[in-house]
Structure formats: structure tokens, C-alpha cells
Write a structure and sequence with these properties.
11 helices; about 290 residues; nine-stranded mixed β-sheet; D-Maltodextrin-Binding Protein, domain 2; 3 domains; two-stranded antiparallel ribbon
Length: about 290
């Protein structure tokens, strides 16, 4: 076999950084060594993997086809290399989570996982659902945990647990009719916003947007200050509801339940570490239901 794991590792790094120098720095090799390995790989394959325009480098069609296969081989090699002496899954996972899941649900689960499986290190990246899905398609993360459905032919979804959105106000009194409300909402691309907008459309209710804020905590502060109504995950406002800083509005006309899902690239290798992570997450929410 003329293709080496090192060549594939450098190829995957260059694809991720879209820059040979930064990829070489991340892998702690010289830029010339990285360029040589990439050239050798392309020579063995008989076709280029990147389009080189001026000083820019980006994956071409052949490179995009090879990347998930290369990542799968590298994942398998790392799994063999990193398996602990006791035979337990070890190594690193890069998990992407949408904002609600990443800020209010996963931290406690990851803390418990770190205690039970210290050889398994999980890095968590948090962003809105649209951003996290893009990162998954770029093979920059191993697994995504997001709010709501994701429709893409290259991605596979698996249900995890349910979440509920709640409409809330700051105690100054809610409008008698939701169509009269001023709303404080997340940015476009947010799973929370998408579910809320779908529910309002289904109920035939207009949305009068007063503020658009990019973080749940900012929305909570604005709602508490009486600037408008918010619609957020019950996970995110549980403490404020209990302490009386926020107050829930009964909304029987709105369907505000949603599915939290695991999402993985169809060609991603499902390592033992990924299986352990998913199993631990399912067991953790099951214990609290």
C-alpha cells in the first residue's frame, strides 16, 4: 500500500484549515513536509485534491469525496491507538451542540462522564443549529446534538430526548392576546426560533418582533426587564421560573414540544467512544425523567 495514514492526516488537516501552513502548525510538522506529503498523496491517487487559486487552497470534487473516507480511516486508527489498557474507549471526541443543549443540558452530563470515563476527553463546541450543522458537514466535529429536525442527505439523525419551549414574561403582565405581543427572539438559524415560528404560523398568529438577540441569557434579561415576551426552552428558564424572575404564559394554542437529536455524517465512522457518549447521554436523561 502506497498511501500512508500520515498523508491522510495531513490531507484532512489541510481540508479543515484550508491552509497548508496552519495545518502543518497544528500537526507540528514543517510546512515543506506537509506540502510534500500532500503532493505524494495526490501523485499516488493520480489526481489533485485541492483547487489552488492564487494563495488560496480549497477542496475540489475529488477531495470532498475522499475526505469522509480518510476521516473514517483516521478515526479507526486513533481508536486502536488510544484504547486504554483496560480496554475502555479512550481518546478525544469533538461534539457540537446547539445553544440550548450546549449551555443548559450537556455540561452536567459531560461532568458525570468525565468522572466515570476519565480516559475519554470530550471537547464541546456551542453555536446555533445552523452553524453546528455546517461544522458537521465540514467534518470539523464528530457528532452534533441539536434542537429539531435537520434535513440533509449526508446526515443521519437519531432521536435523543424531548424538550419544551415556554412563553414567558417579566411579571409586568402579559398581553391578553398573543397577536398583540412584542417578541424578543433569537437570531435566524436558531433551532428555538424555528420551532417558535412554526408554532405561531400553525396557530395563524403574527409575530411582532421587537428585539433580536444572539444569546439566550440576553433574551432572559430583556424579558425580565419587561421589554416583551420571550419563547425559550424550559431548560433555559427553569431557575428563573422557580425564583419568580420570569413567569410562564399558558399557550394551549401553540405546539411547543420539540425533539433533541443526535446528528452524524453518514460516512462518519462510529467509534466505540461515540457509542459510549451517546449511551451515556441517553442514560443520563432517562434517570431524570
Amino acid at each position: 500500500m502506497n498511501i500512508t495514514l500520515r498523508q491522510l492526516e495531513i490531507f484532512a488537516a489541510v481540508a479543515s484549515y484550508q491552509h497548508v501552513g496552519r495545518a502543518a502548525e497544528a500537526l507540528r510538522v514543517s510546512q515543506s513536509a506537509a506540502s510534500m506529503a500532500l503532493a505524494e498523496l495526490e501523485n499516488v491517487l493520480g489526481y489533485p485534491l485541492f483547487d489552488r487559486v492564487a494563495r488560496r487552497i480549497q477542496l475540489n470534487e475529488q477531495g470532498r469525496a475522499l475526505l469522509p473516507k480518510a476521516q473514517a480511516l483516521l478515526d479507526r486508527a486513533r481508536e486502536i491507538e488510544e484504547t486504554s489498557a483496560r480496554g475502555e474507549p479512550a481518546g478525544h471526541l469533538h461534539i457540537g451542540a446547539s445553544t440550548t443543549v450546549g449551555n443548559y443540558l450537556l455540561p452536567g452530563i459531560l461532568g458525570a462522564l468525565a468522572q466515570e470515563r476519565p480516559a475519554l476527553v470530550v471537547n464541546l463546541e456551542v453555536g446555533n443549529t445552523q452553524v453546528i450543522v455546517r461544522r458537521l458537514l465540514e467534518h470539523a466535529i464528530d457528532l452534533a446534538v441539536v434542537e429539531g429536525p435537520v434535513s440533509h442527505p449526508d446526515l443521519v439523525e437519531a432521536p435523543w430526548t424531548e424538550d419544551e419551549l415556554v412563553v414567558c414574561h417579566g411579571g409586568q403582565g402579559a398581553p391578553d392576546r398573543l397577536e398583540e405581543a412584542q417578541w424578543i427572539m433569537r437570531e435566524p438559524g436558531s433551532g428555538t426560533r424555528e420551532v417558535f415560528e412554526q408554532a405561531m404560523r400553525a396557530a395563524g398568529l403574527p409575530i411582532q418582533l421587537r428585539l433580536e438577540l444572539g444569546h439566550t441569557e440576553a433574551i432572559k434579561q430583556a424579558v425580565e426587564a419587561g421589554l416583551g415576551l420571550g419563547c425559550l426552552s424550559r431548560l433555559a428558564v427553569r431557575r428563573e421560573l422557580e425564583l419568580g424572575y420570569l413567569h410562564a404564559v399558558e399557550t394551549p394554542q401553540l405546539s411547543l414540544r420539540r425533539q433533541l437529536t443526535f446528528v452524524q455524517h453518514r460516512q462518519k465512522y462510529r467509534s466505540d467512544a461515540l457509542r459510549v457518549f451517546e449511551h451515556f447521554c441517553r442514560a443520563a436523561v432517562g434517570a431524570h425523567q
